UniProtKB/TrEMBL annotation:
Protein family according to the UniProt entry: Belongs to the DegT/DnrJ/EryC1 family.
Organism: Flagellimonas aurea
Keywords: Aminotransferase, Pyridoxal phosphate, Transferase
Signal peptide range in chain numbering: none
PANTHER family noted in UniProt: DTDP-4-AMINO-4,6-DIDEOXYGALACTOSE TRANSAMINASE, TRANSAMINASE
UniProt-listed Pfam families: DegT_DnrJ_EryC1 (PF01041)
Listed Gene3D superfamilies: Aspartate Aminotransferase, domain 1, Type I PLP-dependent aspartate aminotransferase-like (Major domain)
Protein name: DegT/DnrJ/EryC1/StrS family aminotransferase
Keyword Lyase attributed: no
Domain of life: Bacteria
One MF term in the entry's GO annotations: transaminase activity
InterPro entries, sorted: DegT/StrS_aminotransferase, PyrdxlP-dep_Trfase, PyrdxlP-dep_Trfase_major, PyrdxlP-dep_Trfase_small
Length: 397
């Protein structure tokens, strides 16, 4: 997955443009910037690449989620449905707005289970937020149908899945809103950065204002701009956007390498009858940033994972007991351990997740092993790795 592996001359050149003018801010300073508008360039390129009318780049993927939710009017007491397997950023962005994260089971896609989503809907539900974990997607047709039926918004967290598609459309562009992260370990990186995409002009207008202290961005005197509503600062810097411009131009090159390396590993493991690959919904194509598979039991998954580590295969994760990606270790959320007081809406409405039954999620996650696909591996290295992995897994059965 990580674009940082291929950081090079193209990225340096884009950053140098910014260094030469010294204009590190995305807004204003028109006369000083030698015609360089890196953030705008990143937004325009992304808009074409992901086939969305509006793109707004911000300081992180977490910021993108927060801004996306805010742009659609999500606020105190609103419920946002999210999966048990994701990154902590999902509930952080929801809580930042005083809204309530409603955790829901995943299925063998490793993303939201549509039937569980429908069961979790209440009069307070406003958004369904599938997270396309590890490069593959949720069943978006099913989720969209549920959202349409109940009048809810669909927000795709595509932070780990840029370049993947569903029915031929880029992930992130299918819901009402989509978000990407360009942090240092994502498929393409800005160092730190993110973006939200939408075809809804109102959400876009809200987003660029909200993420810049409410600035209306009218005219060319920043100090004289109006502030139609309260905002915040989630701006991305030109330095970070410059890296993103270079990396975005290389996205398709990265995807080809990922697919090649993924395919080599997958073919080697497909000869092992005990290994079952993660389900990709019909019409979906992964971005190949991870290879995910299930072992027959929790115990076999743990043994296989250990065996992989002992064979020197790095980058294979057992997310089931991971601190950052699975609800079981989120006791800071469960116990609402915040530095200051949280809004009453959150304190009163957050379900007691220590008592929740997520056995469906546990069933899949306890058997899952997830292997990162690197861009830096040569074909020979990947073939050797595939052989070692297959041997390690066979030895564990
Ligand atoms: C990385 C990530 C985020 C947050 O992105 P940052 O840029 O690190 O804030 C959100 N959701 C998912 C699924 C991610 O993997």
């Amino acid at each position: 997955m990580p674009g940082f592996e291929l950081f090079g001359d193209k990225e340096r050149k884009e950053v140098q443009d910014v260094m030469d003018s010294g204009v590190l801010m995305r807004y204003g300073f028109d006369g000083m910037r030698n015609g360089h508008w890196k953030t705008k360039e990143l937004e325009k390129g992304l808009s074409e690449r992901v086939q969305s009318k509006y793109v707004h780049a911000v300081s992180s993927g977490t910021a993108a989620l927060t801004v996306a939710l805010a742009s659609a009017g999500v606020g105190a007491g609103d419920e946002v449905i999210m999966p048990t397997f994701t990154f902590v950023a999902s509930f952080e962005s929801i809580l930042a707005l005083g809204a309530v994260p409603i955790l829901v089971d995943i299925d063998d896609t490793l993303t939201l289970k549509p039937e569980a989503v429908e069961k979790a809907i209440t009069p307070k539900t406003k958004v369904v937020m599938p997270v396309h974990m590890c490069g593959s997607m949720a069943n978006l047709d099913a989720l969209k149908a549920i959202c349409n039926k109940h009048g809810l918004l669909l927000l795709e967290d595509a932070c780990q899945a840029i370049g993947g598609t569903y029915n031929g459309k880029p992930l992130g562009s299918i819901g009402d809103l989509g978000c990407f992260s360009f942090d240092y370990v994502k498929t393409i990186t800005c160092g730190e950065g993110g973006a939200m995409i939408t075809n809804n002009q109102d959400y876009y207008e809200n987003a660029h204002k909200y993420s810049d202290h409410g600035h209306d961005h009218m005219g060319n005197n920043r100090g004289a701009e109006e502030h139609p509503f309260l905002g915040y600062n989630f701006r991305i810097s030109e330095m970070n956007a410059a890296v993103g411009v270079a990396q975005l131009a290389r996205l398709d090159e990265f995807l080809v390498i990922q697919k090649r390396n993924y395919t080599i590993l997958r073919e080697a493991l497909s000869n092992i009858p005990e290994v079952i690959f993660r389900t990709v919904p019909d019409g979906g194509e992964e971005n190949y940033s991870f290879l995910n598979f299930f072992m027959p039991t929790e115990e076999l998954a743990q043994v296989a994972h250990q065996e992989l580590i002992e064979s020197g295969v790095d980058g294979c994760f057992y997310w089931y007991d991971n601190n950052w990606h699975y609800y079981k270790k989120w006791e800071h959320l469960t116990n609402l351990k915040s530095l200051g007081k949280l809004p009453k809406d959150v304190q009163e409405a957050l379900p007691d997740y220590s008592k929740a039954d997520f056995s469906e999620s546990d069933k899949w996650m306890s058997r899952n092993i997830s292997c990162l696909i690197k861009l830096g591996w040569s074909e020979e290295e990947t073939v050797a790795r595939a052989k070692t992995m297959a041997e390690a897994i066979k030895a564990s059965i």
